[in-house]
Every structure is written in structure tokens, then in C-alpha cells.
Amino acid sequence: MRDPRVEVDWDGMELENQLELATGAVFAVLLGLGGALLLARRAAGLTMVIIGGGLGIFGCLVPLATAKYFQAQVTHVGLALACAVLLVMALLPATHRWVEARPSGPSAPANTPRSAVPPYN
After folding, report:
1. What is the pTM (predicted TM-score) of this model?
2. Of 17, 46, 49, 76, whose CA is between 20 and 30 Å from 94?
3. 40-67 pLDDT, tens digit each
């Protein structure tokens, strides 16, 4: 609720909240879709997880500088560390080898309908 007696830049706070919401939405889409694609062993998923991890670190460290309360600072540091662990795990060579070792194509021929009686011609 806006109180006219309190000197607060409400428009600036709304813009800040909208930017945080947009950044969080991009972060969620990158990690969610990237994680699903990574489980399917797609290189695009790995790229999306790496970008999402970097965005998560950046998105946690910027508010850390402006946090007024100790609990908020601890929360931002914890989230930044979690994103850093995710980023390091995505950048490991073993992850790249696992994605590249994806089976290519079907291993058995596809079942095709055959006639019950061989053709006599």
C-alpha cells in the first residue's frame, strides 16, 4: 500500500521488482529447459545450464552489495555458491564427454509391417 506520508520512490521500487522478476524468469527457463535438455544429452542443454549458472551468480552478487540485513546477505551468498557449484559441474570435462557419448540413432532397425504371405511373382 502506498502511504503518501512516507518518502519512498515507489516507481523506482516497482521497476526494480519488475527487473528482478524478469531476471528470475530467464534464470528459471534457462535452468529448467537446459536441465531437461541436458538429461537428454543435448549440447544446447549444457550451454543453457552454463549460461543460467553464470546469470545466477551475477543475479545473486549484485543484490548482495545493496542488502541491508545480514540474513539477506547470507541468503544471497548461499544462492551464489549453489550457482557456482552448478556452473563448475557443468564445465567439467566429464560432463562434456557424457553429452558427446550420446547414442546416435536407433540401435535396431525399425519394425516395418510385413505381409503374412510372401509375394509369389
Report:
1. 0.71
2. 76
3. 999 999 999 999 999 889 888 888 887 7
